[in-house]
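Example record for the data management plan.
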Amino acid sequence: MKPVTFSPKKFLKELGTPKRHSAKIIWVLLIILVIPITFIIPEFIRPANLANVMQQLVPLGLIAIGQTYVILGGGIDMSVGSQISLISLIASSLMTDSPLSMVGVTLLCLALGLLFGFVNGFILKLFPMPPLISTLCTGYFFQGIAFALHKTSGGFIPVAFKRVLTASWGMLSVPFVFYLLMFAMAWYVLNRTRQGRYVYALGGNADVLEKSGVSCAKTKILTYMVSGLFCAMVGIYLAAKLRSGSARYGDDYTLLSITATVVGGTSMAGGLGSLSGTVAGTVLISMLTNVLNNIAFRYNLQSSYYKDIITGLLLITAMFFYRKRE
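Corresponding structural encoding:
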């Protein structure tokens, strides 16, 4: 067997011209960033803070998984934030202290998430148009329903429901373990099943996929249904965590989920990328948010402004770096 040798020159060349949008680049960047961060903000590596980061990344991580499916298939979902908000309000409006109610409302919300995703995909099947425009329209529709239900935060979530969904044991927590399980399942479907190969083919060359006898429309609808399902999970989780629903809970997650996906190496044109890269993008954004919050607390600054600036710069940089090369 020929021995495997490490060539620094070859490695640096791969970083400059990534193959198939390799997730290796973003993981290397993460490791490089952690080193100076631990010196600037020593609190960052404390177990309590790391546990906090692991819980904070869960909503974005789940949404980014669904967004990755859609973008890999050549689409984009601009309605994820509105779906999250609407699901949180539905959950908090219908749930009572009864265990049967908790289970029933949870299942209803998950079913509605699948329905919302189906609507997004079906509209694109009936009226061929850019997914950006289509999902922006449905996003306004979902947001309008959310505001019609409740203009501000409101509703009721039982304490028992919150305790189950937010329970933690040291570094581990229910939401983080759930996120790992969902990632493992999504990764398996995308990389080890025929349907996963269809998603890559849909974004890579839809004409070839159609000629092979696979319905592109059905595959696209399924990617949006996956996105809708993960939106429902996040809406339920945020409602449980905050014990209420709001038409504004999902506002930040549309841009953040796209940023995590693209920074992780998934091509906006579809067909190239991986969920492991999306995880790295999610960790990067969550880590930077936590660091900015720590800096803001120490120096009495408004961290949200800097977070928005950095998020925009990350997205622009990633789109430039992973742009199509001749």
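Summary line stored alongside the record: Residues 57 and 283 are 7 Å apart (CA to CA).
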